[in-house]
Structures
1.
Amino acid sequence: MSRTSLLTAAIVGTLALAACSKPEADAPTAATPAPASTAAPADPGSSHPFGDTINAADFAEHVKTLASDEFEGRAPGSAGEDKTVAYLEAQFKRIGLQPGNGDSYVQTVPMVETVANEGTVVKLDVKGQPRELKFGSDMVIGTRTGKNEVKVDGSELVFVGYGVNAPEQKWNDYAGVDVKGKTVVMFVNDPGFHGQDPKLFEGKRMTYYGRWTYKFEEAARQGAAAALIIHDSDGASYGWDVVKNSWSGAQFDLPAKDDPEPRLPVQGWITGDVARTLLSSLGQNLDELYKAAGKPGFKAIPLQAKLSVDLKSTISEKSSRNVVARLPGAKRPDETVVYMAHWDHLGNHGHEGHGEAAPAGSDNIYNGAVDNATGVAGILEIAEAFSKQQPPPDRSLLFLAVTLEESGLLGSKYYVAHPTVPLDKTVAVINLDAMPVIGKARDMTVVGFGSSELEDILKTVADGQQRVLHAEATPEDGFYFRSDHFNFAKAGVPALYAKGGDDLIDGGMEAGQKAQVDYRDNRYHKPGDQYDPSWKLDGVIQDLDALYGVGKTLAGSEQWPNWYEGNAFRAAHDKLMKPAAK
């Protein structure tokens, strides 16, 4: 995740993950560091007769396998990871690809697993009156400190608008207020979003300042003891159930030494209803605050309330795995085009220590068929096509299936920090995440449209398919920052994230948008995201053909695409490539 078009309004990339079978959350222990289990299933492959070309039958076989109950929702650190990694290795070997990390198909990703005690209660002192917030129904919280117990006692609440400090925008919600040791409360998305002010930031399109991850990072930089984001479905682009499911149970982080970004002692979300009631009791009106916080010159508002919490968590040091395979180029093997997708999903919620288990007899497995077995199946199909291509590609192809996307793009973050191919030799990255399975469309959605010269190549391919390119329908949802290509983009590597659009051949925009909403409301980050034999796969095959065409052009040429002039990532690319004098 992550996710547009069919999934445009649904997908977040970067929420935290749930996982399988963990120690009880109310009995914290520090586990001995250990790698993920390496036990493989007896038959990680498939008896399906795979063909040489991108086709629906092969694509469906991969998705059915990866999204089966046997794979238990593909949670990092679980038996489902073992099965997934074994399956991907077996498929890459069958296709004829070489190991992509030296002599190995895997790259170990260290991770810290934190399971918060979901009996935790946040205690508020509101003008001298006590109030308690319960985990799941009122709030979700966690810690990224790696500590078994974190206490916050009597921390004063401060409302900081959107929690943004953006000097280039001449905007600082922290101006004139010292929040050291305090608890900041803030809105999700960018200033101007709720007031629909096109003059603020990038108008309707979310910037990185609108992401919840940024808001916690900035609060940590400001010295806050805790931070709470006020949830609203429009601003977040997903409902409270998504927040609750994603913050329940095991949460994963890179160790602090592998991730230098600042971390808060306590961070989380509160529901919109809780926020409205709390603010009203403090003489504030939530609707009026939305208006005030979206205007230049907004000043933070100290609140007559204090927060206390004793957060106990089970901490385990473990590891997960990226899976990496390589097809060497015939003429310039050191230059590489990367295809990537995240293999992880939300695991099995029926196990102990994994958040709120579903009732007995109900479906506990979050299979993640669309999100993101479809993307993994896609890179396997594209790998198959490249392995049979004649003449073979001049440049190398790297196929990267990353872990921990649902935990904040951690697997790709680790890869970018420890690449198996130098980033200045990485020509481009093509990311596949949550591919639409609703039939052929007259269009393709390019998430972050207008970003790089990769779109020029895609346009040529799409023209041949008689399709048009356009931006995502809801750029305010910030999907560009919610999938794994973003870590490559920040490093300067041109990245393309594109998929089928909404204007379906069968049913037009109405049918496409209806399917989009149906997925968001009924299956996204829910047990209902399962393989369905009634899927219309002709569209996703057309999408894969188009994305294969982009890579084929790059792998058969000497092009070094750049970000468009004025793009925020162009400077990083130019700095990255300068030593190579490309």
Note: Confidence is low (pLDDT under 50) at residues 1-43, 351-356.
2.
Amino acid sequence: MPRSITSRLWLWLFIVALGLAFLIGLNSWGPLESSEARYAEIGREMLTGQDWLHPRLLGIQHFHKPPLTYWLTAAGLALANHSALGARLLPVLAVLLQVYLVYAVGLLLFAGDRARALGAAVIYGTLPVVLISALNVTTDAYLATLELAAAYGILRYYHDGRRWALYLFWVGLGLAFLTKGPVGFVLPLMAVIGFYFKREQARRPFTWHHAVGIGLFVLVGLSWYIYLVIENPVFVRYFLYEHTVERFANAATFHRSKPWWFYLVLAPATSLPWSAALITQAVRTPWATVPQQWRNVFIFWVVVPMVFFSLSSSKLLLYVLPVFPGVALLTAYYLGRCTDGVLHRWYSGFGILYGLILAALCVLPLLAIDGKFPLEITPFTAIWPAAGVVLIVATLVLWDEVRMAPRLLMLPALFTVVLLLSAKPILRQNELLFNGSRPLAELLQERRLTQRPVLIYNELLPSLAFATGRLPVSLYDGNDALARETQFEPTNAWRQNLLNLRDAQQEPTLDSLLRQRPVLLVKGDLPNHRKSLLRYTQYQRKAGKWTLYW
């Protein structure tokens, strides 16, 4: 970067620009099914019901994850008035904190070289998978932040013996455990192993600070679990077996089965173009010339976690998010070994790729004119990518920097900002296509149906509950997503929110509901043997994949 501006200032400029790009238009579309809507709605119900220990989804207790994500979602909703912005606010801040932590870890691994640490932070902040995690309300952005904080804490403690860093490690580990359970140990454990493996590092003695740190971990990470087990001993098996062993070994339990090579393909694909640079330069670099420290980062921060998650039967892309700080650091290391000539070739390749993407975004409105294109895109949607092309060209032409490394970092940073701003109008205009429900809520309001009961046939739709602020009644007819865990309910009050159409004993309750002239939402076509649900309806309206009857 220009020598008149420090690397730390460039870091903060990048974080601020990235943060603004995330926040602008963040409320343009509502939470999307299924994971984001589920976490957002649980946070809303927690804030509304003020029960912070028993998460609820559509009125029924839901213990699939520990409560930290729900607490943070509720906090964001309280700050931003129960909006989609509030649900997404803290994940965005978590990702920005990750960018800073990658810089901080980079300072340790690059022996105080701020320029290379900055490079790692920019690489991390421009990875597509990281951008995806920031725009989704899930546990993964929080887990990656806390694991990275714990890893930084222990590395900093090993580096200079700072006691606060040791406490950061244990508290971060406890909060990670309170976010997603034992999987929160993976990255911090790999950081510890990688620090010592074949490096003959002097071991720091066990002191009373370690004992206090372990106590903090137990207090922070295990207190909620202990409370629930005391309240109901059934939770011992539930947490240890069904949500640890079963989730890892049996993907059918949560319908997330993917082939063993899922991450081997998707992880590089969602970190392009940096993954192409990393893989190419790593293959070209003799392994014997790589210092042991960076071999350990490659093995323990990338390879071992990838193998671990690939062995699991349950797979989603963001499960491997903690791997990508290692990817960013390794990319900065390998590119830091390159000559300006090599960097120029990568710079040119990045420029061509980004130019093609922005050109495609500019052309999309033309493709949507005839109505055959699957997306609805107005002509004004092309403003952001067109302005981005002008901005990038002007910056790189007028900037008098001759070194290739700063240019190679500036280009993806500018492109990422433009991409984030360009994507949000597309999400807003196609919310129903992307499994959002805000347009359905707006249709209910437009038709003055907001005070009627809402029945949803054979689908779990928390996004509609979030958009309307009211709980619908789900009509179960064989969809496994509605096979809720009601064994923890102390009363039968949950039956007000979930009716089993296959249970003849619930027919009187259903008939009573239908007599109240509810709104019935059906995704796709209503089966012929369920046409009786329409016996009191007069009107219908199509909205994307949904049909509303009232």
Note: Strands lie at 56-57, 60-61, 454-457, 473-476, 498-500, 519-523, 540-543, 546-549.
